[in-house]
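Protocol step 4 of 5: obtain the predicted structure for the target chain.
Materials: sequence only (see below). No template structures provided, no constraints applied. The aim of this step is simply to have a reference model before the mutagenesis design in step 5. Sequence pasted as it appears in the construct record:
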Amino acid sequence: MRSSGSTPSPSHSPRVRLLLQVVGDDHPKACTGRRLLHRGLADPWVRGGSRGPPPILLDPYAKGPLSPADQSAAEAGGLLVVDCSWNKLSERGRFADPAGRRTFPRRLPLLIAGNPQHYGRLGELNTVEAFGAALWILGRPAEARALLESFHGGEAFLELNGMRLAEYAGADGPAAIEAAEVSLFSRDDLGAAPVPPRR
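Step 4 output (structure tokens):
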């Protein structure tokens, strides 16, 4: 594993584009996705998408976890999040390639929510936490911090997960991420995750 201090955001690296599909079943006032779009911090995703490299789809049902090995794919195609309610997450087709074309599905490693709606819950991150965590894991902590700290609960998310994010960002690939999850969480925690890692 690399040390957590060896993953600064390279100034020469292209910006990772944040893409968002808003399903619209969350309460508007609690929807960080809509606020990301309103502030110009994310771009709306239209079914069928634009031409170019496919994005990484942050999908809690994906078999493989996001890891630093995905950095080049993220820089090429961006990160895509489906903004929807956790209460309706299991509805069929919610994460069935919403882009309407090929994507790279990855689940986020296990983290603790810091947002007011799901504070302290395992894995139930809101949209801005998902983007921030992904950017951090991909070696862009400054971008992640700037994004998270502009939202209520963002600083709490970083305080709750600082050690975990550093561990994940220092992983060599998916296998190291999964090993880190086992070392960072108890067996009971792993079993209580909304969508447990698939081994």
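Step 4 remarks: Confidence is low (pLDDT under 50) at residues 1-12. The chain is about 35% helix and 10% strand.
Proceed to step 5.
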